[in-house]
Amino acid sequence: MYYFFYGLLYLVSLLPMRILYILADGIYGLVYYAFGYRKKVVMDNLQRAFPEKTAAERTRIAKKFYRNLIDSFMEVIKLLSASQRFLNKRFTMDTTVLKELHASGGSCQVHLGHTFNWEWGQLVLTGLTDYKIMVVYQPITNKFFERLFYRLRTRTGNVFLPANKMKEAIQPHLQSQYLLALVADQAPGNPKESWWLDFLGQPTPFVAGPEKGARSCGLPVVFAYIEKPRRGYYHATLKLGSCETASLPEGELTHRYVRFLEDVIRRNPDMWLWSHRRWKHKWKNDYASKWISENHPPEYV
After folding, report:
1. Distance CA 65, CA 57 (A)
2. Does residue 250 carry a pLDDT above 80?
3. Quick one: which of 36, 40, 86, 198 has the fewest CB in 10 Å?
4. Are residues 222 and 180 in contact, defined by beta-carbon separation less than 8 angstroms?
């Protein structure tokens, strides 16, 4: 059954991008207008993040977000047959900061958010750096899509580490000079052990793992974000977050990343994944010791 559906998707992937985007436009109409996929979650998130905007402005952001989401889905299908030359033409990035860090002889971390199209980005990065690339990811529950995505994501030799088994999975690679990529805006499973900040106007928990790993190993951290100059083309920007992570106060690296991410989202709000429930955890006074924002923590009601 896997190979049957894989074959169907492969045939679709052979279509030119202009045809795939026509299909994407049709799917967008169904997803946004007919089915309203996670529309309540998206609009609630946008209301929380941008209360100063009008309803019409938030709706425009939502529509652009859904178009980017469907485009990203079609672009993943394209990966079944797309050449590396095709990807390199459509996704660019300046890796100067990575070259400088690699020359120093150590490993590093890259922190990025859920901005489109990270699937293409990690595949292009393979040919632009001498680092061994490892990516921490959340396995997909659906077995077909988990198998499909794993195959596509590892096609250039990048190592994918399941988040629930990361400590064991990373062990064979620790002696290499590696780049560990983490999507650092995942909603944490345990809010008690997370860092809490004011993020887009909301008390928000962020996973402590990325910072903890960087500080314990003394790894430099690079912050990354992706922009979309035009449909089907992307550019990633990499900026040094800190070279001296081990000497930073606890929470400082997370604080820097969150402010970086917040700025990225405000400049290109339609590029962030609004369909996930980022604010499902409520603030409690019990978390006061984990509050690291500039302002005072809110009062729990």
Report:
1. 12
2. yes
3. 40
4. no
